[in-house]
Amino acid sequence: MIDVYEYAKKNNLIDRSAIGDKKFRDFFKKMKINVAVEIGTYKGISSAYMAQFANSVYTFDIIDYFEKYKIWGDLEVLDKISYYTISKRAISKNFENIELDKKLKKIRIKNKLEKINLILHLLTEIILMKMLKQILNL
């Protein structure tokens, strides 16, 4: 099997990926994992790394970056990874049904775009967890 971290370094895939964090890499080396879940796939290098240690990886994003399929194929982990694109429409549809914690309203973020991104990220995680429960029949 190809070393995913070395592949990521060689192909300049470390940026915007958890694989650049030694604690992340060491965490997965310590145990055998049945199922891993990733939110925010981007180019898929972190999910490829997790797939080395997990039996299956479920990964979700709002943008389908096609580079990940080549990367997963190159690293021979394509059959262990299930990818799902979540539409912004699905997020906004569910937004009206979710009451945010009052603490979230008190968060002081100077940039309104950052606050919107934080809220979208939280909503995406909620929706993805619901989907994952359905996928895994929990």
Structural description of this entry:
With 138 residues, this protein is α/β, with parallel strands linked by helices. The chain folds into two domains: 1-85, 3-Layer(aba) Sandwich (Rossmann fold), CATH 3.40.50.150; 87-138, no CATH class. The chain has helices spanning 4-10, 22-29, 45-51, 67-74, 88-95, 102-105, 112-135, and strands spanning 33-39, 54-61, 81-85. A three-stranded parallel sheet has the order 1-2-3, with helices on both faces. Helix 4 (67-74) links the parallel strand 2 and strand 3. The protein is globular. The two termini are 32 Å apart.
Strand order of the largest sheet: 1-2-3
Say what oligomer this is: single chain
CATH class of the largest domain: Alpha Beta
Number of strands: 3
Low-confidence stretches: none
> What is the C-alpha radius of gyration, as a whole number of Å?
16 Å
- For the record, give the distance between the C-alpha atoms at the N and C termini, rounded to a whole number: 32 Å
How large a portion of the residues is in β-strands, by DSSP E?
Answer: 5-15%
CATH architecture descriptor of the largest domain: 3-Layer(aba) Sandwich
Tally of helical runs: 7
> How many structural domains are formed by the residues?
2
How would you classify the helix and strand content by structural class?
alpha/beta
Order of helices and strands: HHEHEHEHHH
Mean pLDDT: 80
User: What would you give as the CATH superfamily of the largest domain?
Assistant: Vaccinia Virus protein VP39
How would a textbook summarize the main sheet? 3 strands, parallel
Q: Helicity level, as a percent range?
A: 40-55%
CATH topology of the largest domain: Rossmann fold
Shape: globular
